[in-house]
Design a protein that fits this description.
With 175 residues, the chain is of the alpha+beta class. It has 2 domains: 61 residues, no CATH class; 96 residues, Reverse transcriptase/Diguanylate cyclase domain (Alpha-Beta Plaits). The chain has 5 helices and 5 strands, in the order ββααβααββα. Helix 3 packs across helix 4 and helix 4 packs across helix 5. The longest helix is centred in the first third of the chain and has 32 residues. The termini are far apart.
């Protein structure tokens, strides 16, 4: 293989790839029909990549809370189904903890929803930061967060939540 032709592959407004066509040295250079065919393949590839990226983006938007970046309730429900299916196979259960930020309405009423949003984002980052491998947290709704803690007993889950709540600066776990 000594010669090649390269056609840019555009995804949306961006051309980041080149589709290369190799030829043997003995073959003639590409003619207009060959080039048109290569352009068609590059366009098809670009469209397929664009559609795939759009599908991934829509799925991410549908399953992510736009404010906190955490999984949303829909994503949490899907993950819970997987957790329930996994538990009999691996023999390790999990604990669920629902955390509601007490008196959060007072923050919004007193300081406004923009400050309330910043508080939710801050708390979400803190909740997320110290999770063990396999554990996860989702925004269940409003000021509620759902934690899934793998392989935890009731006592173990309470201890983990004490640590998470202390790290988030939200006060003491109520039991």
């Amino acid at each position: 293989m000594r010669t090649y032709s390269g056609i840019p592959v555009s995804v949306g407004d961006e051309a980041r790839w080149v589709l290369a066509f190799l030829r043997r040295r003995s073959e003639p250079p590409p003619d207009a029909a060959d080039i048109a065919y290569m352009d068609l393949l590059a366009d098809w590839q670009g469209n397929a990549l664009y559609q795939s990226a759009q599908k991934d983006l829509l799925k991410r938007i549908a399953l992510t809370d736009p404010l906190t970046g955490l999984p949303n309730r829909r994503a949490a429900e899907e993950r819970l189904q997987k957790e329930r299916a996994r538990t009999p196979r691996d023999g390790h259960g999990f604990a669920l903890t629902l955390v509601d930020l007490d008196h959060f309405k007072m923050v919004n009423d007193r300081y406004g929803p923009a400050v309330g949003d910043e508080v939710l984002k801050f708390v979400a980052r803190r909740f997320e930061s110290g999770l063990r491998k396999g554990d996860w947290v989702a925004r269940w709704g409003g000021e509620e967060f759902l934690f899934v803690l793998h392989g935890s007993t009731v006592e173990g889950a309470a201890s983990i939540m004490e640590q998470r709540l202390a790290a988030a600066g939200t006060g003491r776990y109520g039991g």
